[in-house]
Amino acid sequence: MSTNPQHMEATNKWPGSWVVWIYNKVIDSCSHTYAPYVLAVVSFTESCCFIIPPEVMQLPMTYANRKKAWLYAGISTIASVLGAIAGYYIGHMLWVELQPILFQWIPGFEANFDKVGQMYQENVIGALFLAAFTPIPFKVFTVAAGVYAAKIPLMTLIMTAFVGRGLRYFIIGSIVYFFGAKAQELIERHFKIFTIVVMVLGVSVLAFLKLRH
């Protein structure tokens, strides 16, 4: 995970570079007084329909004001859970209308959707927690949870999203709060390893539960 708030390189074409354009706008907003509101919007949309993760704002904002580390982590968590609920209802109530749009415009959505359905068949809670905590595209899981609403209650999604997202964002906030200037190096050097370990453990748990059945 890169925490360097430099702009992504973009072309002048539209809408081919729309993601890059929005990313740059998000980065620009980090130093403004309205940044917490933008962080909430980014956290919300990342859980249901968009691809920019809250960390691109949470990290530079926390570096700039470590005393607000818990506030920014809390905003990311709560908004992300609300976005997960929105994703659930997109899948439950609007899937027929929005499926072509999501498959066409959201990178990785179509490629991963059937895989998510298979993971839900094996273990719902394990799959949701894994997606909430790791860099796996969470939006695919929240929308798919709504599509498979007969198998996945909304409260299951809310609880696993709250725990997984809360752990993710508060761990990041804690590292910056306690380690300050060294936090960027620690996160960039070890966070990917940490998430890979969590993913391996999660897959192992899913395999174990599957074998028990």
Provide an overview of this structure.
This protein has 213 residues and is an all-alpha fold. The protein has one domain (18-212). The protein is built from ten helices and no strands. The protein has helices at 18-28, 35-46, 55-64, 69-93, 95-105, 109-122, 124-133, 138-147, 154-179, 183-212. Helix 9 (154-179) packs antiparallel against helix 10. Residues 1-16 have low confidence and may be disordered.
Element layout with pairings:
Layout: H1 18-28, H2 35-46, H3 55-64, H4 69-93, H5 95-105, H6 109-122, H7 124-133, H8 138-147, H9 154-179, H10 183-212
Helix pairs in contact: 2-4, 3-4, 3-9, 4-8, 4-9, 6-7, 6-8, 7-9, 7-10, 9-10
Overview in brief:
The protein contains ten helices and no strands.
Strand content: under 5%
Number of strands: 0
How many whole angstroms does the radius of gyration measure?
17 Å
How many domain regions? Answer: 1
| Average pLDDT taken over every residue | 83
Instruction: Indicate the overall shape.
Output: globular
Q: If helices are DSSP runs of H or I spanning 4 or more residues, what is the number of helices?
A: 10
The chain-level structural class is mainly alpha
String of helices and strands: HHHHHHHHHH
The level of helicity is over 70%
Describe the sheet with the most strands: none
Distance between the termini: 36 Å
Query: Which regions have little confidence, pLDDT < 50, spanning 5+ residues?
Result: 1-16
